[in-house]
Design a protein that fits this description.
20% strand; OB fold (Dihydrolipoamide Acetyltransferase, E2P); alpha/beta; 4-stranded parallel β-sheet; Rossmann fold; 16 helices; 445 residues; Transcription Regulator spoIIAA
Length: 445
């Protein structure tokens, strides 16, 4: 979602006559989009910004800004703590970033003053206020020469109150975009060559539940999937991330009659222990989660299911952790993101008793990661010798001479080929070997 928001901001700068550079020493404006899900993410953003403080002396006119969730939650205190910071913009104001930065930059470049400290006074901006209909402002995309995939934000915010999560405070309440607006955005992307879209929402399968009606016993999210599925030229649809509370039979059934829907869901479990789930304020029990996974696999036998798991939650005993391990082994997830519990300000879990030590968190983290790696490796090795259908996304991230694509199950496949001819194409790749999380193969004639 942050990647999508950053793309929106970049598009506005490009339309305003700016160019994007990867070199901070070459930039006139440097913006850091932030995440608050874990403390590590906030510290990384702060370290990144603080490390650029010396550039102020070399190029006094440069505008520095924080955007996103940390900006939303910390607001004015960031301007106090980071002396060279100019702009702090929250999650509902991405569409205003360009105007703020452009105004400050033009003032600085047009003004000729000997006293630099005076020239910088009164120019900072902090905008973290709520804005009505902000969900409808994220619909533009950065133009690319060849683009086969795209993210599409369908909603903002979250009404759930998991005890560990700061997102409802940083992203606001659930609010969805109208289906026709989303469909038009996807049609525009397809017209530019996009073959696959990923629909984004904080809890994506709860899209529209407070604004739109159920029709023919189908939720607004299922109605949206059906509408996007009808778009000519679109090959694939993904969505992330769903919540068990909204994964009802109408959504499960989609996997039986919407062939463009990819055979992959990222389905956060968080814990395999009912006691821990209760403390997390996750409104389901472990058997309910397992039941949904089994229904999804019955509807689409080749589906890959990945998940999120938090280890070391306050009060998690060794027995609770082993319940999570047992559930992971039972469900045989294709992959998982495993997180050590991290305190978030103003969340109930941060004030709970029985906080675990970092040593215990790390031990459990490493134990579960070893299981995740083993199962992922086994599943990948089983694909060696098979032919997999992929969408070529372009040059791989690790080697310019190879191309990369993904299977319907979201497995990365690396192979050799001509990027100008193959990017954006659906291809058959024979899998020759594998690493932990990556498949390697050769193009089938």
């Amino acid at each position: 979602m942050n990647e999508r928001d950053s793309e929106q901001v970049a598009r506005m700068f490009i339309e305003g006559g700016y160019t994007v550079t990867a070199d901070t020493t070459d930039a006139d404006a440097i913006l850091v989009n932030t995440c608050s899900v874990r403390d590590q993410a906030e510290q990384k953003a702060l370290n990144k910004m603080n490390a650029m403080g010396h550039l102020r002396r070399e190029k006094p006119h440069v505008v520095y800004g924080f955007m996103g969730c940390m900006a939303q939650s910390r607001g004015p205190e960031l301007l106090q703590d980071v002396k060279h910071l100019d702009v702090v913009v929250g999650t509902q104001k991405y569409h205003r970033v360009f105007d703020y930065v452009d105004r400050i930059l033009k003032t600085r470049t047009e003004r000729r003053m000997d006293d630099l400290s005076l020239s910088l006074q009164g120019e900072s901006v902090c905008d973290v206020e709520d804005e009505v209909d902000s969900q409808n402002t994220i619909s533009d995309h950065v133009p690319k020469d060849i683009q086969s995939t795209a993210f599409v934000s369908i909603m903002q915010g979250c009404n759930m109150r998991c005890s560990f999560c700061i997102v409802p405070d940083t992203r606001g309440k659930e609010r969805g975009r109208p289906i026709p607006h989303i469909v038009e955005e996807v049609k525009g992307l397809v017209a530019k060559g996009v073959k696959e879209v990923t629909l984004l929402g904080q809890i994506v399968n709860l899209y529209g539940r407070t604004e739109f009606d159920i029709v023919d016993r189908k939720s607004p999210f299922v109605q949206l999937l059906e509408a996007v599925h009808e778009i000519d030229g679109l090959e694939r649809i993904r969505f992330t991330s769903p919540h068990p509370i909204g994964f009802r039979d109408d959504l499960v059934n989609c996997f039986t009659y919407l062939p463009k829907l990819c055979s992959h869901i990222h389905f956060p479990m968080q814990s395999g222990s009912d006691a821990v789930l209760k403390q997390m304020k996750r409104p389901y029990k472990n058997e309910k989660f397992i039941s949904i996974c089994e229904k999804i696999r019955a509807a689409r036998p080749d589906i890959a299911i990945t998940t999120d798991i938090i280890v070391g939650f306050p009060g998690e005993t060794e027995e609770h952790f082993e319940e999570t391990v047992a559930c992971y082994e039972r469900l045989q997830f294709d992959n998982a993101f495993v997180f050590r519990y991290s305190k978030r300000r103003n969340t109930p879990a941060a004030e709970m008793e029985n906080q675990l030590t970092e040593q215990v968190k790390e031990e459990r983290n490493q134990k579960l990661l070893a299981i995740v790696d083993r199962i992922a490796q086994e599943k990948n090795e089983a694909l060696v010798g098979t032919t997999q259908r992929i969408l070529c996304e372009g040059v791989s991230k690790t080697k310019d001479s190879t191309l990369s694509g993904r299977t319907s199950q979201n497995r990365i496949v690396i192979f050799e080929g001509d990027k100008t001819k193959l990017t954006g194409k659906m291809l058959d790749i024979e899998i020759t070997h594998t690493s932990r999380f990556t498949l390697y193969g050769k193009l089938v004639d």
